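Need a sequence for this fold. Nothing fancy.
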């Protein structure tokens, strides 16, 4: 019953761009055959028709979602996607360990994530249903709770440890928030777009939801009648594995992370989640430009047409600038390595929040069961979650199946930690077989470091510049970026069509 989820020339020349124009470092050939609304039936682009030109910066799921929804709204728009890396996907990426590939970034999709589920179906991908794993909550001395494989027994164990009232209260607040959050889908279907995160949150659930971004999860839970024990154990464990943080994060982000507790179907994409991005770009007929880091956006005005346009500049590259009618930023501006600037955008965010650094370490070896106060390896849960304890070097340890759902013959574990783990750290938990494989470490600027009251960057940074990742300060997840992407697409459409 209990599962945890982890929960982007001149204006005159611009408007005349034909579909056969060549662009810098074109990685994907521009196709003039585009698909209408449902992106399934082909239609020839009317070359006499004016093409608006939109740039999307970032090819993670936020940028790809923006491209997909913009193409649905504007069959004739020209979309150029710029990605600084040599691959698409951003925080969705895989890592090879021995003969197997594993998710290294965003991994778990919940069946209620309507956009991501739909992206999977529409782009012909298959789910990789996660095998049943039992989790345990470890406090650096012993497991305070271990999930049982038998549902009813597990339910009774939870009741016994935490009591029915507090579990009921926790579920109630999570479910109510989820239900309100679902409003976003119909609002976006009616092409409702938001200039700020605050407007979006209030529209889906009133002032209460906005208030959740101003209070800590622990405070909200206590006020709702949830016990401290449940907060310190189960809820803390879920926040540590999802966001590498504690229950002082904003309550909205915390509730999004906890939503998976009631999850009955968690999955990832067969072959790797990054494929969603690759496939979305393909069905959205974009020009994808890899290895292109945008360093600045300049707002310009064409006196002859009386139109605003935007000039993109490339990092370490003196080539001529490229102009657009509209720009979608689908990368977190507050992440430490982001160099993107705009000097004359009206609402460019001045406050830089901080981003949480997370290390994902992959280890092949046998767990030292006695370290966890267990009598045998079988007694150790396959997914070790943790309570807040400064002595613990990791936030979670989980046995991994690969991107095709195959469990390697010799078990591979993924550890999340705040610091790079050294061999001694690993040897305290594992009998390491160094002859086997290297121990890949993937370093992430993973999610915003949440800090109440949250201060949000706007979605609308200028007349024609829209920001997907403003939504991440409320909560970070694939589905959140997909929602931010659709919002940016609708804002772009409304701006270009006015
Ligand atoms: C370890 C980890 C585990 C996670 N687990 C889950 C999970 O289980 N479930 C879930 O739903 N979410 C999870 N997440 C969160 C999820 O992965 C992210 O919220 C989501 O992928 C963010 O997508 P995005 O497109 O908004 O940003 P990103 O994926 O970061 O994409 C931004 C892109 O922009 C590019 N870029 C940046 N600057 C520039 C520039 N100047 N010019 C050109 N390109 C640029 C970057 O290279 C990147 O490709 C996890 C994240 C991490 C790190």
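Here you go.
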């Amino acid at each position: 019953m209990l599962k945890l989820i982890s929960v982007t020339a001149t204006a005159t020349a611009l408007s005349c761009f034909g579909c056969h124009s060549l662009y810098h470092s074109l990685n994907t050939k521009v196709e003039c055959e585009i698909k209408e609304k449902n992106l399934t039936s082909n239609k020839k682009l009317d070359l006499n028709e004016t093409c608006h030109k939109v740039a999307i910066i970032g090819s993670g799921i936020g940028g790809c979602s923006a491209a997909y929804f913009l193409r649905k709204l504007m069959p004739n728009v020209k979309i150029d996607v710029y990605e600084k890396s040599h691959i698409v996907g951003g925080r969705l990426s895989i890592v090879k360990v021995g003969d197997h590939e594993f998710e290294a970034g965003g991994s778990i999709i919940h069946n209620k994530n309507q956009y991501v589920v739909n992206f999977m179906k529409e782009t012909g991908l298959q789910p990789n249903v996660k095998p049943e794993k039992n989790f345990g909550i470890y406090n650096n001395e012993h497991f305070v709770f271990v999930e049982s494989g038998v549902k009813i027994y597990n339910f009774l164990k939870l009741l016994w440890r935490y009591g029915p009232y507090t579990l009921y209260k926790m579920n109630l607040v999570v479910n109510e928030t989820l239900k309100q959050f679902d409003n976003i889908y119909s609002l976006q279907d009616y092409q409702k777009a938001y200039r700020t995160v605050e407007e979006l949150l209030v529209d889906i659930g009133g002032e209460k939801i906005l208030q959740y971004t101003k209070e800590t999860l622990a405070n909200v839970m206590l006020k709702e009648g949830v016990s401290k024990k449940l907060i310190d154990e189960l809820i803390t464990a879920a926040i540590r594995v999802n966001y590498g943080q504690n229950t002082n994060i904003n309550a909205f982000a915390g509730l999004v992370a906890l939503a998976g507790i009631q999850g009955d179907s968690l999955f990832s994409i067969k072959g790797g989640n990054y494929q969603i991005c690759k496939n979305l770009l393909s069905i959205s007929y974009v020009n994808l430009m890899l290895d292109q880091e945008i360093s600045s956006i300049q707002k310009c005005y064409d006196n002859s047409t009386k139109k605003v346009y935007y000039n993109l500049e490339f990092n370490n590259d003196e080539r001529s600038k490229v102009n657009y009618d509209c720009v979608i930023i689908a990368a977190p501006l507050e992440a430490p390595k982001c160099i993107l600037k705009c000097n004359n955008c009206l609402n460019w965010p001045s406050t830089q929040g901080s981003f949480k650094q997370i290390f994902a370490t992959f280890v092949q070896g046998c767990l030292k069961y006695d370290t966890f106060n267990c009598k045998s390896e079988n007694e150790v849960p396959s997914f070790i979650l943790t309570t807040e304890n400064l002595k613990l070097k990791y936030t979670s340890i989980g046995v991994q199946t690969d991107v095709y759902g195959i469990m390697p013959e010799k078990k591979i574990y993924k550890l999340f930690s705040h610091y790079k783990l050294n061999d001694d750290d690993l040897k305290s938990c594992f009998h390491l077989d160094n002859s086997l494989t290297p121990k890949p470490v993937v370093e992430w600027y993973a999610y915003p470091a949440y800090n109440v009251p949250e201060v949000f960057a706007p979605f609308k940074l200028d007349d024609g510049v829209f920001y997907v990742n403003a939504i991440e300060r409320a909560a970070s997840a694939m589905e959140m970026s997909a929602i931010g992407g659709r919002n940016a697409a609708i804002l772009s459409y409304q701006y270009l069509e006015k």
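For context: The longest strand covers residues 355-367.
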